[in-house]
Amino acid sequence: MSRKRTVVLISGRGSNMTALIAAASDPTYPAEIVGVISDRANAAGLGIAQSRGIATKVIQRADHPSKDAYDAAIDAALAGFGAEIVALAGYMRILGRGLVEKWQGRMINIHPALLPAFKGLDTHARAIRAGVRIHGCSVHFVTPEMDDGPIIAQAAVPVMVGDNEDTLAARVLKVEHRLYPLALGLVAEGKARMEKGHTVFAHFADDADNATSVVMAPDPLREETDLEQLARITP
Ligand code: GRF
Question: Which parts of the sequence belong to the Formyl transferase N-terminal domain (predicted)?
Answer without folding.
Answer: 4-184
